[in-house]
Design goal:
The structure holds 2 protein chains of 2 kinds. Chain A is mainly α. Chain A has 14 helices and 4 strands. The chains are: A mainly alpha, B mainly alpha.
Chain lengths: 360, 524
């Protein structure tokens, strides 16, 4: 493997085939009328769009967990912060069409606020909010990570404080007076960049942007993992003290991948909001962040394609279960957690690799 | 003495018609002046006899009517009772209901509740005196003094004295105001503050101003002390709850290194066991219902310990040495346990009632109520900690536990069955979580999600205290409880909680090993 070839020829063809197949879905929805054999229902487009956001979050999480050995139980915060940052723009874009027909979002009218608080200033600009999507999770992760990694908090302790972080943020965002809509969060969006948010064309565009983001992130992560930087990260995971004896300072490597992961997760959240149409603080509940971890674990951590497969399969299962047997879903999810950790530590990707080895 | 008289009056009243209320008092009721009407009600209330009660009750129930010439009648069916003469007769012509607005209704309620001061039932009198502490007017002063003359209960009497003084603060007589202000130096009623402040600045009489200032200063310092002690008590109480929820985790996580995310669900199972015990007692032993907790404690311990041992045998023992995997597997277990309970008992909260001896509280320092269930939980936490300490330090099992946790291979070499000790330690930790669940069932709602609210807090306590340190866990739990309760009045409950989480996150950066670092070879 030379550094120039990111993926093997077979992997490339697989990725291209998947991308084409996924990209075809919204087009089939748009260009074939309802009832046609090739028509894809709209709910399917938004469902797959949602799964791709989850897959991006799982990929981001796997960069820190699978490659650098840092298990975060707080990635829900970065996801939700990205979503809230984008949501601020979407709320401003509602204009005067809210229930109270005010310039302010309904929840601020409800709180009897007269003007936007300072952190809402300039959020009517789309590009400013896009910058926030990257900056807010990025800066939070950088600051949090800097102090945590500098004091060499590792393993379980790091996981627990990330969980405390997401719990604290959840409590904060549940307060009405924090200025993010309390437990209702943001919803009832009308338009994005002037286009109606519920129009099929807008939905297809959002879907394709998400697909591009996922594909771009996959290539970027692959590039990082194959570089020397990626190998140092794996050394952090496998034996951090030995790496330090060789003369590396793991702080900056960990901080880099941690911040990158948070930013990717924030982008996933930002793409999630317009497609799902709501963001509220329950996205920050510790349970949600742990669920992200299981996506990566099911697919196979320490691989890049694994988390994407995991996010699709676990969430696909969830959609099916909550439709068919809603009471059994938590049993199934619990069993997935137990069985994967007990019998499939390398996930589906690991299973496939073993099977291929046996074939060879 | 007066009560006897009162009884006689009542008997007389029952026997024969007699002269009723002075018509001069009744006249303003039919008039238009709202102030005069309120005053009349207070004066009628001050009569403190059966007639007054009857009239006011009628007014409250819209049964008081007036003829166009201003004569009042209490109408009951087709009978009309004349409160002025005490005669009952047929309904007169042209009766019209008396208008009662909210202000008047309030005055009637106040007067009626004040009349309870003359009830022979001690509890009613106490309740009336307590209500009067919140609002009392000068017009009620004669009434209170009348009640005071008859009252000889050791608890109600000083209360009434303070109430009388409060009423007299508004007296037009300067000497009375001064005496009242001085008498109130013994009070700890926060409602007096604004009244005393006005007296202190605006009273024409210098003596009253001085007395008011003096009393106000005493009141402020007493209130501050009460608040401090209240915070201290509720902080210890919250700390005990945290301790009970975290103690099991201090063993499974602290000693064994298992990140047991299902710990919260073990608490929940303990609480549900309590619920089942209560049901069983209600069904088969209703007479002994107050003692169902005595059965719930061992039952909860055994049930959760059994669940814990089962988990250890089936899942956790395969994951020793892989802490992050344990975390995920136990999270899966927690989902399954939660959903099982939801399937069996329903998603709604179940009702666990405090035993009768636990409801209510003891009042200290005048106004601070220490609830019995809070006190019971503090004592219980103390007992459980002592028990755990004794098991770990004074028994053979404890010796083996410590040996295995410090040096597993060496312990195995000298013949300790490490797998069995692992199982028993995990069972012990789980059982203690069950005991914590019993305590939680006495404080709040019992539902399938009960454990979720405590899992982050429990981990915070153990991490803050230092892993493997029982003393650290105790101090961390009490410290967090106190910090929470002292921050709450300043920042509000949610911000206080966030501040504490942020503090812990920062604290762990500074001292990753917690308050009490493990020393020696077992430290990493």
């Amino acid at each position: 493997m030379t550094p120039t070839s990111l993926f093997s020829r077979r992997a490339w063809s697989g990725i291209v085939a998947c991308t084409v197949a996924l990209a075809a879905l919204p087009l089939l929805n748009l260009f074939f009328a309802d009832g046609h054999a090739l028509h894809v229902p709209s709910y399917m487009v938004s469902l797959i769009g949602k799964f791709m956001c989850y897959a991006l979050a799982a990929l981001a999480l796997d960069m820190v967990w699978g490659y650098a050995g840092i298990l975060s139980l707080g990635h829900g915060v970065f996801f939700a912060l990205g979503a809230y940052a984008h949501g601020m723009y979407l709320m401003r874009a509602i204009g005067r069409e809210g229930v109270y027909q005010s310039d302010l979002p309904d929840f601020m009218v409800f709180l009897d606020w007269k003007t936007y608080p300072w952190f809402w200033s300039a959020t009517d600009s789309f590009w400013y909010c896009v910058a926030l999507v990257v900056l807010v999770p990025g800066v939070l992760a950088f600051v949090f990570g800097f102090f945590a990694f500098r004091s060499r908090i590792k393993g379980v302790y790091f996981s627990i404080i990330t969980q405390a972080m997401t719990y604290a943020f959840m409590l904060l965002f549940f307060r009405n007076n924090t200025g993010f809509g309390g437990n209702n969060g943001f919803t009832d969006f009308k338009r994005i960049l002037g286009y109606s948010i519920s129009a099929p064309g807008t939905r297809a565009t959002l879907y394709l942007v998400t697909l591009a983001a996922l594909g771009g992130a996959l290539v970027l992560c692959r590039w990082i993992v194959k570089s020397k930087l990626g190998r140092v990260l794996q050394a952090v995971r496998d034996s951090e003290s030995r790496l330090m004896f060789i003369g590396y300072n793991p702080l900056w490597f960990k901080l880099f991948v941690w911040t990158l992961s948070a930013v990717l997760c924030g982008i996933a959240g930002a793409l999630y909001v317009p497609q799902v149409g709501i963001i509220n603080p329950s996205e920050m509940s510790p349970a949600n962040s742990i669920e992200m971890v299981i996506w990566a674990a099911v697919g196979g951590r320490g691989t890049l394609i694994g988390p994407i497969i995991g996010a699709f399969s676990v969430n696909g299962l969830k959609s099916w279960f909550t439709g068919a047997f809603p009471n059994l879903w938590l049993f199934a999810l619990g069993l997935i957690f137990i069985l994967v950790t007990r019998y499939l530590p390398q996930g589906i990707a690991g299973l496939a690799a073993r099977w291929r080895k046996e074939q060879a | 003495m007066l009560r006897k008289l009162f009884l006689i009056v009542c008997l007389c009243f029952a026997g024969a018609a007699r002269a009723g209320i002075d018509p001069a008092l009744l006249a303003p009721l039919t008039g238009d002046d709202p102030d005069a009407r309120v005053e009349a009600i207070a004066s009628i209330g001050a009569l403190a006899n059966e007639d007054a009660t009857r009239l006011l009750t009628a007014l409250k129930n819209d049964a008081l009517y007036a003829t166009p010439d201003g004569h009042l009648y209490i109408v009951d069916g087709d009978k009309a009772y004349d409160p002025a003469s005490g005669a009952t007769g047929p309904l007169p012509e042209g009766l019209d209901g008396l208008m009662v607005n909210n202000r008047l209704r309030g005055a009637v309620d106040d007067a009626l509740s004040a009349l309870k001061l003359f009830s022979p039932d001690r509890a009613l009198r106490l309740a009336a005196a307590t209500a009067l502490q919140k609002s009392v007017t000068l017009a009620q002063a004669p009434l209170i003094e009348k009640a005071l003359a008859a009252e000889n209960d050791a608890e109600i009497r000083p209360m009434l004295q303070l109430v009388a003084a409060t009423a007299n603060l508004q007296s037009p007589d300067g000497a009375k105001r001064k005496a009242a202000a001085e008498a109130l130096a013994a009070s700890s009623n926060a409602n007096l503050r604004p009244l005393l402040q006005t007296l202190q600045t605006d009273d024409p009489d210098e003596g009253v101003r001085v007395a008011a200032a003096h009393t106000l200063a005493a009141l402020e310092s007493r209130l501050a002390r009460t608040e401090f002690i209240g915070n201290l008590f509720y902080g210890i109480s919250l700390g005990s709850v945290l301790l009970l929820t975290a103690l099991g985790l201090a063993i499974t996580f602290g000693l064994m290194g298992i990140i047991n995310m299902a710990h919260g669900e073990l608490l929940m199972i303990g609480a549900y066991t309590t619920y089942l015990c209560q049901l069983a007692f209600r069904r088969w032993m209703p007479d002994a219902l107050d003692w169902y907790l005595a059965a719930a404690l061992p039952a909860a311990f055994l049930v959760t310990a059994a669940v814990g041992v089962a988990l250890e045998r089936t899942v956790i023992r395969w994951l020793y040495g892989r802490p992050l995997e344990t975390l995920l597997a136990t999270w899966g277990i927690s989902l399954i346990l939660m959903q099982s309970v939801r399937t069996i008992f329903g998603a709604q909260n179940v009702e666990v009632a405090n035993p009768a001896w636990m409801s209510g509280g003891v009042t200290v320092l005048g106004s601070l109520v220490l609830a019995y269930n809070r006190i019971a939980i503090i004592v219980f936490a103390l007992l459980v900690v002592t028990g755990v300490w004794l098991i770990l330090n004074k028994t053979r099992l404890g010796l083996f536990v410590r040996a295995v946790m410090q040096n597993r291979r060496m312990a195995g070499c000298v013949g300790v069955s490490t797998a069995k000790i692992d199982m028993m330690t995990f069972g012990l930790g789980s059982g203690i979580a069950g005991l914590g669940g019993v305590a939680l069932s006495q404080l709040g709602n019992v539902g399938p999600d009960l454990g979720q609210g405590y899992i982050v807090d429990s981990f915070m306590v153990v991490v803050l205290g230092g892993v493997g340190q029982l003393a650290g866990t105790v101090i961390a739990a009490l410290g967090l409880g106190e910090a929470n309760k002292f921050l709450e009045p300043v920042a509000g409950a949610v911000l206080a909680k966030i501040a504490i989480l942020v503090f812990i996150i920062i604290f762990i950066q500074k001292r990753p090993q917690g308050l009490f670092a493990m020393k020696g070879r077992s430290a990493e």
